[in-house]
Specification:
The complex is a heterodimer of chains A (about 190) and B (about 160).
Chain A: H1 2-23, H2 33-50, H3 53-59, H4 62-71, H5 74-112, H6 118-145, H7 151-171, H8 183-192
Helix pairs in contact in A: 2-5, 5-6, 6-7
Chain B: H1 2-20, H2 28-37, H3 49-54, H4 57-77, H5 80-94, H6 98-108, H7 121-145
Helix pairs in contact in B: 1-4, 2-4, 5-7, 6-7
Classes of the chains: A mainly alpha (about 190), B mainly alpha (about 160).
């Protein structure tokens, strides 16, 4: 009887573990294709949507501030500063969260792919930390003193972000495959050999 | 081969659209609102009968989408001062009473749906925010231009 109860307990326990494992959903496999696609998308989004010079210059254009100060009443000036502050904070928050995501993906890649150069990864790590600290400082500056508070820090952040993107791109370059050559070319190539 | 041909067709159609239709609209804001109005909000596809009859529906759709993105980018790059000027052009072209337009735009914010698909959310948010401010600047300038009520001039 005791044996039966014990085996019942063991059975229920095993069943509970199985249910728990099943409820964890789709566990993400480190170094999976999905992670690589995400890394690529994040990198593209940062390079094309957040960092281009024209976009940064437009968001933080002092020319607009000068214009509003010159022609608009005080309430419109306040509304303008409020709006630009909101956009500036959104920009820096997106930059920060993209790099946090990229950093996580890099960490996962570094564990899986021995081809990644250790020196490059350490350099990338240092740059990531410096960039995240600058983004944090920028966020505080924007919140406290508005969007035009720290133009030099902004320059530092965009330069650091561009550098991290470049290293990150180089670091993941081995994952790129060469485009397929047309069949004719390949046939010609084999003849030459 | 086929895709490059189609790309060339799309470019020709876009040029045709720029030359015949968009060139009649002096302001980018007007062009943006016009191009957005050719899009069916149920499926996101663009329709233009004239262009479709000269090319094909799919080529016309792609050409309209390309021009829409181009105009959005043009407006994104505009300074606030330029944007206020664009609003001037736009109000003039629609012949709407300025007060009505301000009230409608403030309540309905129609420019929010005039953004091309797959636009970066930050870029779209930035442009909408700029239009909102440009509207406020434009309104304040309009108030300044309107003649004051006779009472306002009476000496106390």
């Amino acid at each position: 009887m005791i044996g039966l109860i014990l085996s019942l307990f063991v059975g229920v326990g095993l069943l509970a573990i199985l249910v728990l494992l099943a409820r964890r959903g789709n566990p993400r496999v480190e170094g999976s294709a999905q992670q690589l696609v995400e890394a690529r998308q994040t990198l593209d989004m940062v390079q094309l949507g957040l960092l281009p010079r024209d976009i940064v210059e437009r968001i933080f254009a002092t020319q607009d501030l000068e214009y509003v100060t010159r022609v608009a009443p005080a309430e419109v000036q306040r509304a303008f500063l409020r709006e630009r502050k909101r956009i500036a904070i959104a920009w820096v928050e997106r930059l920060r969260s993209s790099f946090v995501k990229l950093m996580r993906l890099h960490r996962a890649q570094a564990r899986v792919y021995p081809q990644l150069s250790l020196r490059k990864e350490i350099g990338l790590g240092i740059n990531f930390v410096a960039l995240l600290a600058t983004c944090g400082a920028l966020q505080v500056a924007f919140r406290l003193r508005g969007p035009y508070a720290a133009p030099r820090m902004l320059e530092t952040a965009t330069a650091a972000a561009a550098r991290v993107c470049m290293i990150s791109e180089e670091s993941l370059a081995f994952l790129k495959t060469e485009p397929l050559r047309p069949l004719e070319d390949r046939a010609r190539g084999s003849e030459a050999v | 081969m086929d895709s490059s041909l189609r790309r060339a067709d799309v470019q020709t159609a876009a040029d045709d659209l720029r030359r015949r239709t968009l060139s009649q609209m002096p302001g980018a804001l007007e062009r943006l609102i016009y191009l957005a109005s050719t899009r069916d909000y149920n499926n996101g596809l663009y329709y233009h009968d004239g262009l479709a009859s000269r090319f094909s529906e799919i080529v016309a759709c792609q050409a309209l989408a390309d021009c829409h993105r181009e105009v959005f980018h043009e407006l994104f790059e505009c300074s606030l001062e330029d944007l206020v000027r664009q609003l001037d052009f736009y109000v003039e072209s629609t012949r709407t009473a300025p007060g009505d337009l301000i009230a409608a735009w403030r309540n309905l914010e129609p420019y929010r749906v005039a953004v091309p698909a797959a636009t970066d959310p930050l870029a779209s948010d930035f442009l909408c925010s700029n239009i909102k401010i440009a509207l406020a600047v434009w309104e304040s300038r309009l108030d300044a231009r309107l003649p004051r009520k006779p009472d306002a001039w009476l000496p106390r």
